[in-house]
Amino acid sequence: MSRPHPMMFERALASAVRAPSPHNTQPWRFVLDGETLEVWLDRARVLGVADPLAREARLSGGAAAFNAVVSLGAEGMATVVRTVPDPREPDLLAVIRLDGNRKITQAGRDLAEAVFRRHTNRRPFLDRLVPPVVRVALESAALEEGGQVEYLDASGRFSTVTTLVRRAEALQENDLAFRAEAASWMRHEPEALDGVPTVATGPPPYGARAVSLRASHANPELPPREFEQDPLLAAVLTRDRGPHAEVRAGMAMQHVLLTATAAGLATSFLSQPFETPQTRDALDRIFDGCGQAHTLLRIGYGQPTATTARRPVADVLTRRVSPDVPAR
Ligand SMILES: Cc1cc2nc3c(=O)[nH]c(=O)nc-3n(C[C@H](O)[C@H](O)[C@H](O)COP(=O)(O)O)c2cc1C
Asked: Which of 12, 58, 106, 223 reaches 20 to 30 Å from 52, CA-CA?
């Protein structure tokens, strides 16, 4: 095996922190131990109201792990990712270990490059259908990580799920604690390194709309716009449940998002029904028999919008110095 260059881990970490996270909380920290990279949950950055069980934070950690794997893969490094939970260390989400060399492919390079272009797009998408070949590519992306994509238009669940999204959005809009938490992560100062900046918000919807995006991410200063009437909505599922499945689902979600980005698609999230207990149970019943739904993605064609800031890698990285391995 050719030796990994130390800069490969720097680049893998720069990719990892580009992962999405709810309200751009970035609830992760990393430990580099020789040639092993650990992804940890940062409890201090878990949303207490919207995500008390740290489910969305674990999805984010899985996405960060996947970005690191993609970056190392594009440099010819094969990796093994261990996500089996360690009961003594419940906040250790994933351990990425190098596993020899792998062939560098154009597809791998495209994904690695998509890490830095992917962003959440809260603006209207075009009413243009996503071609079947791309739909299949997104399904394969989830499968490769042990997840599954289910398109709501194909499964007949579109209207039941979009009704739940609207219901959850209304519940959250009437919940002071929820609104206060969402507001506390909005950022108006350009130098902010976390949170959702004003440039990443979307316009208020004009007229009837098929899906309700988060009201807190609609910018009242923008003129209202009509949203697409027929968005492609995809649920990311796993067969099993629990913290381990959530990290794996995060990897599957990120593989889907990067594949979509590489195919020229825009994406955003509809997480409201996962975050209110009343709608979460209903959502579980809707997908009963298919597995555990972890996230709901809106996928389509749209004008690229702004990417958001991240805290520097140095703020989230610890280098573990083993007695027999000199620190680099
Ligand atoms: C698990 C999860 C849930 C999310 N839920 C929503 C959501 O409901 N609405 C939304 O607009 N963005 C949602 N996001 C997107 C984040 O707000 C976004 O990733 C973050 O602000 C960073 O911006 P970026 O994705 O453009 O890099 C979610 C992200 C994750 C990982």
From this structure: 12
